[in-house]
Recover the amino acids of this structure.
């Protein structure tokens, strides 16, 4: 085809954006051979790439044991949810496209999603202080019988201590115990932390790459 669906989307985006001439417009497109040249010809430039990664289970997965001083808490209280929210907001503050939300709006969005299961939110505390969080959802359960990590964040002061790996492996074990075939997540390739390396070192492999293109208007 001369123009695939992604290129048509970009053309429409450019036309709609012309009257505004004020902001950058972004479009996410699955990576395909030969697409980059056509997209650049429409005036877009690369912004970032998102990698969807996955891991399959071949049986039960043993949950890791938290190191001394680290405790894990599920979101069975409003206090835990609020602390996890703060970690998520601060942990993602420097990430591409992040838009901060007040707690009430963040909570309302989670409550409105049928994929939300608060038992899949885990907060890690270090010496009693909130330090890292992971929020899993059921987005891919009905189609693929896989768990999904929607958010994984660590506060800057606690990075480099293995908390992300601890929460990720805990999520793997929980998904396996629920009878899931595996776990999926999506990560920005330009993540300000070495997240992509963490996920691949934990056994996850690329499933899909989505390129984000930007045009100044």
């Amino acid at each position: 085809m001369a123009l695939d669906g992604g290129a048509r989307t970009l053309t429409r985006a450019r036309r709609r954006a012309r009257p505004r001439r004020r902001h950058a417009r972004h479009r996410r497109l699955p990576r395909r051979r030969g697409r980059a040249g056509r997209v650049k010809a429409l005036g877009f430039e690369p912004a970032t790439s998102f990698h969807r990664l996955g891991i399959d289970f071949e049986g039960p997965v043993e949950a890791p044991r938290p190191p001394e001083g680290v405790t894990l808490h599920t979101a069975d209280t409003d206090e835990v949810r609020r602390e996890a929210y703060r970690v998520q907001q601060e942990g993602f503050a420097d990430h591409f496209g992040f838009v901060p939300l007040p707690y009430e709006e963040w909570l309302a969005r989670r409550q409105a999603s049928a994929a939300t299961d608060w038992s899949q939110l885990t907060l890690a505390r270090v010496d009693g202080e909130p330090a890292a969080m992971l929020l899993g959802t059921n987005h891919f359960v009905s189609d693929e019988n896989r768990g999904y990590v929607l958010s994984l964040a660590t506060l800057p002061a606690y990075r480099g201590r293995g908390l992300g790996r601890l929460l990720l492996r805990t999520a793997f074990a929980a998904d396996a115990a629920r009878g899931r075939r595996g776990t999926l997540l999506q990560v920005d390739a330009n993540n300000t932390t070495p997240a992509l390396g963490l996920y691949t070192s934990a056994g996850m492999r690329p499933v899909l790459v989505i390129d984000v293109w930007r045009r100044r208007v």
The first strand starts at residue 24 and ends at 30. DSSP finds seven helices and eight strands in the chain.
